[in-house]
Amino acid sequence: MTRFFFILLLVNLSCIAQDFTRQWIYLETIEEQKLNADIVDVWEYYIQNPINLNDSTELYRIRELNLLSEKDLNLITSHCQSQQLISIYQLQTLDINIEALKRIKYFIYIPIKNKPITTANKSTVYLGLQFQTPQRNGTINKAYIGSPIKTHLRYRTTLKKGWRLGLNWEKDLGEPIWYQNDGANNIALNLTYKGKGKLREVLLGKYDISIGEGLLFGTSYRINNPYFLSYKPTSIAKLTLSSKEYNYFEGATAQWRIRNTNINVFTSHRNLNGNSSIDKTGLFRTKKEMENRKTFKENIIGVQIGRHHKQNTFSWAGIVYNSELYTAKNRFLQSFYASKSYYNITYSGEFALQDLDDWAILQKLNISVSDNSLFTVQFRSRKDSVFNEYKSDYCSFSNGYENGVYYAFQHNLNEKWQFRLAFDDFKSNSAKITEPHYPKGNKILSEILRQSEQRKFTVQFLYKNIENSEQINKLRFFYQEELSDRIRWNTKLNLIKEGENTNSSLQSNFYWNSLNEKNKVNFSFCLFNTESESIYCQAPYFYGSYNSRFLSGKGNTASLSFQKKIDRSLKAGIQITQINYYDREVIGTGNEMIDSNSKIEFSVYLNWKY
Amino acid sequence: MMKLIQLTCVFIGIFAHAQNTENLLKNHFNPTLLQGFDRNVVYSHVIILNREFGLHNSKIASIFKLQDRAFHLAYHQYGYEHFKESKYSISTAQNLNSKMNLGVNLNFHHLGITDTENLKALSFDIGYSYKSEKYEIRLFLENPLNNYYIESDLESRFIISGEYYWNSNLFSGVQLEESIHNGLRISHQLGYSYKDYLSLSILQSLHPLEYGFRLGFKKERFQLYSQYQKLTWTNSTGFALIYQLNND
Question: Does ipTM surpass 0.90 in this model?
Fold first, then answer.
């Protein structure tokens, strides 16, 4: 082992440790609540597997980065489809903000002609630790089996002949690294192969599935900005090294490509956590919690056949699903997906069938007018008995109800100003015991956005009304300014009014970069005051630790972080976060209780790329 | 000629920007304001919240320089005959660079309630400001560590405010204020000054809905302000007097 590390130390230090601050800050302005480890996992994947802009079958994956607007995506896609590029810098000729191109620069490439494909060894090791003080009751009373330190190890490397290896191992506070007689805690191991022949990809280990619009399966990361819902399916199976403990599959997948037809085969076998329902917390710290670990078997086997030709896409998927939690009987699920573009009109739709009895449908029409306006209308409906365990993002629209119509309009007033308006009407199919038996409601979402190189400004307003429930009004304000070449400041205001209750928070973040860009200091302060709804708070970007939390009650939270590039391959960081509550004497209950109204969390990491 | 007039206006604007004494009348004192004052200043304001009980909010303060560093000393009182909350403050600020300042207030609080024990507490506030040619952004953290008399009874706020100077006569201000005790407050202000001796400001709060106006008059080194505000729970009237001393 010592020898292994010694060899690693001697490896040529040729790559710059990647930092996703620019990408993170972009997403912060769009959909803050979607910022988590999963998106960083996606970016890390595409750093190692950049997208070939000259390959029309790979090109559409740019969407998975979630770093471009709909307009920019369309421009790049149509430009790359119309000609073979020599350099990625040719994208600068398009009417796209240079900032947008900088965001995706590291994720795209153009293969150099007549140059043999080399598999340069690229490996990254990430080690993160997190602990808090005062300690929780579970640690003090020794109810927790493991140490009070959260640890996270991630390793990715490129092997020979198109093979790649990845490892992710995480344990939460109070959990052991290894459960006696029960295996390792939250470990993911991936082996992938990428080929140029008919067999394009083989994947062994932890992966995501996204089929069609996601009526049946949609576990991979995607941001559907609620202020303009627009999702286009990309890859079917994609490896994941994120630490998620529920929304993923484990097994093997393979993809063949024969002319314009893709064939995906996938199989998964894993043990779900839970007792009478699935445990999605992923926390197994005490003997009692451990009883819920790996209790139900789940098996999936499926095939997907998709054909993409010019502007048309068709696909069919057949999946056999079996889970001990629901029924011993196998479920046979089918998905039919079609998409067709005709000039500025795109239609797409998915029809899902369960055991030839129950069904779900989603239909979508997108119309663009010049480059500045976009209109979408979507209709969705499903029987409440249709399989919805790995519910895709669309379910969070329509309030999670089965029937819904969503229509939205987006217009670029000029280079800087953008306006969005969306309406969502929904109704439940599932009968409730109390009145209303079939609740219905609607949502109105609006957004005004102004972006220039120096500042960004967003105001979002959401109105939600559900029959016999309190109306909810949400206002979100975001302002960001480059105070100097090295200092960026932003502020976020959240106001949620639910009936008579007011919930609010005010937050400010500072980002400082040293002149040589080797040192970064971030500071954040947020004061919150809530009565009925919790408020989302996201601290500044800190590699590997996402510190996002829902805050409720009265109090403040502050964080300070320092990150340093020690050399071209090694990067380290430390973050201190404090939360003070003004309305309580202790934080939490049971084993999670902390005997104080404030707590401090320390996070440190080391990232090594060689 | 026109350009010369414009240049003079911009110069006056920047000068007026640096000396916006109306900021002293805000509901908080951001210590970074000290960097805008070249002269020593003495000021006081009284806001009457309820005449029947004598409920008031008043302050007397001075800004002065000691070894080239500006300080602010203030005595602030809120309450009425049987309930008096007093605050003694000392403040100073430091330039971080030509555009940014950082400041701190140290406060001693005293609470006197008739027939009960007097209470005392210490607290501090932090202020930050960024100043450009036409606008200024300020951040203010009041009592961030939640110091208290007994338990969470001292106000703790986070305030972000900004002012934009349209020209030498007209400015607008926005203030976002999150308070542990009172929740969110969003307010804005529009101020206009005429020939540097008369000024009018319109004050409005959007959340909660409140409004008011302030009239100012300047005569040499004296400035007199009078204001009326319709608050959600009362109507208030107030006045302020600011005197800029000759540094010599």
Answer: no
